[in-house]
Amino acid sequence: MTSHQAPSATIDSELPALKNAVSVALEYAKQLGSSAAEVAISKQQGLSVSTRNKEVETVEFNKDGALGITVYRDGRKGNSSTSDLSPEAIRQAVKAADDIAKYTSEDPFSGLADKALMAQDIRDLQLYHPQILTAEELAEIAIRSEDACLQSDNRIKSSDGATANAHTSAKVYGNSHGFLNGYCSSRYSLSCVAIGEESDGNMQRDYDYTVARKYQDLLSPEAVGKQAAHKTLSRLDARKIATAKMPVLFAPEIATGLMGHLIGAISGSSLYRKSSFLLDSINTQIFPDWFSIEEQPHLLGALASANYDSEGVATQSRKIIDNGTLATYLLTSYSARKLGLTNTGHAGGIYNWTLSHSNQTFDELINAMGTGLIVTEVMGQGVNGVTGDYSRGAAGFYVENGQVLYPVEEITIAGNLKDMFMGIQGVGKDRDLRSSIRTGGILLSEMKIAGN
């Protein structure tokens, strides 16, 4: 490894050229007589180093990007893309999109988002913190995390690897409304996987990770390695439990997935296809009345902050769930038109959902649960978005009288998402901030557990 494997320049230096490429594409689309056009371009560069048992395994440097253009002609739409950003290649991509638009079927709901919705107030959300890192530096923190993991307990027999990443990107979006904006972002991460073994040969694995916009905000490599080891050791000697109904406490990283099913159910594409169990549920209570979810797109330095969505529509703070009641769907321009509703600026995803809490820590939720199951892992895809039926393989810990007794594996947890949402008894105040859904553990009153 040599230091020249690190990016030689920060990606913000390329932003003017990317904006110019978008302008060129839009101008050419206008010359071809299109009724509207939109162009998105992204460029990423980064370095990733993986180690295994304290030896460097892979070093990957990537630098790539692409321009995508959508041309509209009287309700018809054509798409094209190119990774060659020369003026001639851009013109060819625009012409290809325009030619496609001439032959596609007319769709009265397609087209740009309304001009009035375009973002005007572009703030510095502090998403970009460039730090030039060499492969040696990333390898060092990966190895340090593995070393801390391996040194923590003699039952940690080996590491299944550690990976350190440093990535930056530049994104530009423009359309024929006159909107044109671009920004840069950075993301750094470190993960470590531990393998533990009991004297009887039973083996388990688990991992931990840290992620941040700013390199200095990552947890220490030693903390990541020790936590990976701790989580693995806690799973040793796992067993099944008897089939029963009991309270279930989703660990924070699993609780985010539970809320992910809500996202799918209230997204416009599910609604206009009538493939959601929450059809016609606006202003309907679907959670306990103390429970709320607030979307906060403009949190400084957060992992899911943005001034506008992928159609240029301004993002805004809003209640998703307001005192248990569904306050909004998640709509793009297309789904809003299909449903006869208002665009909510959710093309491209959600922005920093923060769940209200019940003023309890995770340990206090365990105590409040009494006897039940902590779920730390789910497997399989057994969730029906139409009916809300939920059935997934799971692993975790059996709790009795507020005390964790032993790890559990090879079980299935089942219920219906409507009942599960209404049955939320508590949400931890010690939130996990490593994703777009910021929540602590979530305690449910009851689920079916299929075991022995």
From TrEMBL:
Domain Metalloprotease TldD/E central: from-to ranges: 129-236
Pfam families listed in its UniProt record: PmbA_TldD_1st, PmbA_TldD_2nd, PmbA_TldD_3rd
Cytoplasm is among the record's keywords: yes
Stored InterPro entries: Metalloprtase-TldD/E_C (IPR045569), Metalloprtase-TldD/E_cen_dom (IPR045570), Metalloprtase-TldD/E_N (IPR002510), PmbA (IPR047657), TldD/PmbA_N (IPR035068), TldD/PmbA_sf (IPR036059)
Tree of life domain: Bacteria
EC number: 3.4.24.-
Record keywords: Cytoplasm, Hydrolase, Metalloprotease, Protease
Keyword Cytoplasm: yes
Residue intervals of the Metalloprotease TldD/E C-terminal domain: 243-451
Domain Metalloprotease TldD/E N-terminal positions: 37-101
One GO CC term on file: cytosol
Gene Ontology molecular functions: metallopeptidase activity
Enzyme class: hydrolase
Localization per record: Cytoplasm
Biological processes annotated in GO: proteolysis
Homology family: Belongs to the peptidase U62 family.
Name of this chain's protein: Metalloprotease PmbA
Taxon lineage: Bacteria, Pseudomonadati, Pseudomonadota, Gammaproteobacteria, Alteromonadales
